[in-house]
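Regression test attached.
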Amino acid sequence: MTRHLLSIDDLGADGIAEVLEVTDSFAEVARRAIPKVPTLRGKTVATLFFEDSTRTRISFETAAKRMSADVLSFAAGASSLKKGESLRDTIETIEAMGIDAVVIRHPSSGVALQATRWLTGPVVVNAGDGWHAHPTQALLDLYTVRELLGGDSRCFEGLRIAIVGDIRHSRVARSQVAAYTAMGAKVTLVGPATLLPPSVEGWGVESVTSVIDDVLPAADVVSLLRIQAERGSGAFLPSLREYTSEFGLTMERARCLPSTSIVLHPGPMVRGVEISSDAAELPQVHVTRQVANGVAVRMAVLFLLLGVPGSAGVPGSADSGRAVSAAGAPPPGASSGPELRAGGRDGG
Amino acid sequence: MGGDPGASWHGASVTDTPVVLVRGGSLVVRDAAGRPAGLVGATGRSRRSASTSNGAPAVVRQADLLLSGGRIVQVGHDDGRGGTLDAPVGATILDASGCLVLPGLVDIHTHLRQPGDEEAETIESGARAAALGGFTAVVAMPNTDPPLDSASAVRDVLSLARGAPVDVHVAGAITVARSGERLAPMAELARLGVRLFTDDGNGVQSAGMMRRAMQYARGLGVTVAQHCEVDSLARGGAMHEGEWSSRLGLPGIPASAEEAMVARDLILAAETGARLHLLHLSTRGSIGLVRDAKRAGVPVTAEAAPHHIALTDASVATYDPLFKVNPPLRTDDDLRAVRDGVADGTVDAVATDHAPHRSETKDLPFDQAPPGMLGLETALAVVLTMMPDLPPARLIEVMSSGPASIAGIDARGGGAHGGTVEVGSAANLCIVDPEASWVVDRTRLASRSTNSPYAGHKLRGRVRHTVLHGEPVVVDGEALR
């Protein structure tokens, strides 16, 4: 496993497969009556969000708490950044507090990588940097697809993925492309030309198009992106109405999709723009499942980054009975969080 | 304005200068036909042909130089004694063995930050950095705070530069407050010796204003220098728009933002007949436009920055704001085009765009950090390292005579820079060991800032001595002022 998770490139195909397998175990934890394990007891996870985000921050904090980590929540608005403290000083202050993992979100691309240059102790998890990367979002998308297809990580081979919307300004799109292509899927980017990236050199995508109707009939997965009007996407389009008419997933377009298609959206979903209200209710749309899987994927990521080498355990899965990397899998369904032999200073 | 360079109050006065013997260096001298070829060339083993861009041959030979009264008073003859001279009693001896003796370098694009941001650089620290880089003259850009758009501001800078280890000249703003709306008092500034006018940092966006500035400048006989960037194309951009900006998720500045203004201003220069200088060209398209315009007789000169022949946008993959600069680092293809332009004469000057920034500003996210990188102490080494086949005479043209001519501080402009190394010339010299390798150490830079993109990198070519108006100001790599 990589030391930090800054982008999908840190993982590669094997790393992605590992995260998805470990996620299976933590998804099982989430289904327990008391969804809590002591895996990260004694560890401290700080969420450092320089940009408003309710769902991603809560998802990470829930993940950390379900593994019994202590959680510190740092919101830029309440911080000394407003008093003129530099980003570097703020991040170095976090280190001085003895944090084990920093989950960082920032409106500027590259900040998670910059943070690793300023931190010596904590691992860094990128929870979204500018337009650049949002690796856990892509991982939860892949996990959701894998779960729905019922296969293992080979299920992505040859899968036809359409990513639709504002690709240019989307960190989610960049991470999705990296993850799907790493796993052997065929990715098509769909959007108005002004919202496509200036270059897709090195992206490994199959094609780029501004005609969604050419793509839908053969799409196994359709990943819709939000038009981020607050980031100025609006200036790239004549109007949201025109976007909807050209790219929105209306009922009429949804009928062109194969019945087995999976429609995903990283949220927050804007009904009436990228998807019509009635289409959003179709059974192929799995947005809430994505949110639930987001917690399990983030548990897996934190576990893999913070787990004590050679001694930590993941909770066993009731379905597979498989312990991924350690002994000490707890009996499923224990009424209180089962004690894992985490070893090291967490040793029970 | 110019006047006798030896008596310039920028430099030391003639009577104070010592007698100096420059011993064992190699010169590039006039060829048999007497055409000036500048100088240089490591004796015998030089890998460089010494020809100039127009093909005139130049002769490289070892010769001692005797300097006195701010001038070169004797050059060792090729008389079987290997060009050696005897040292007069009391002379200071500079060991130039293994070195090229170049005319002092001239940087026509230096940000000295004073007044306004003395934490980042002062005239004193910037001038010392320049001298260590082999420069004997720099042109300070006017985007200070307050900007150099008035006679008093220009006089202040010239006054602060007195006694500096390089001659500090000043570029004036084209428009008041560099805001592009009203002409600055160009005639008044010209009377103070200002020869170059620019709103650098900003391009003059209005074609009408630029045309008017050119017309006015033509009447004054001064040069208008443009920072070529169309704001509506570049706004918000943090790096070159292309493969890397797309991958890294950073807003891009397209090549067209530069090229559109280059094309516009070339048309205006052709129409008005004004001398136009184009600052820091960075794209293949810009180089091509200038090459064509020169063929058509447009009165244009162009410069390129060392970083645009050394670094590409792939460096930004680190998200290290040290690699943020404006115009941005471009593609490998652009870099090769700029190098070709430097080699073939399309580019008249390598100019540093030395842009110090306080270190905390480079600890910002990439898209929020200010653009700019240091250049004075590394420029010559970067050119020698990145363009090892550049003929020495051409090196002299792009780093000394070319920029001195653009700035109006060569002999023709009444100044003392960019001349040849021969008897009677002003003794402004850059003595460089072209084979010496060194690692750029950001803790040992003379600049008050440390934002060098070459920190930790090995460069070839190290300045050993710098002589200003006959007086050594850098000896064995140490600044004396």
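Expected vs. actual: identical. Strands of chain A lie at 44-49, 70-75, 101-106, 123-129, 160-164, 186-190, 207-209, 221-224, 262-264.
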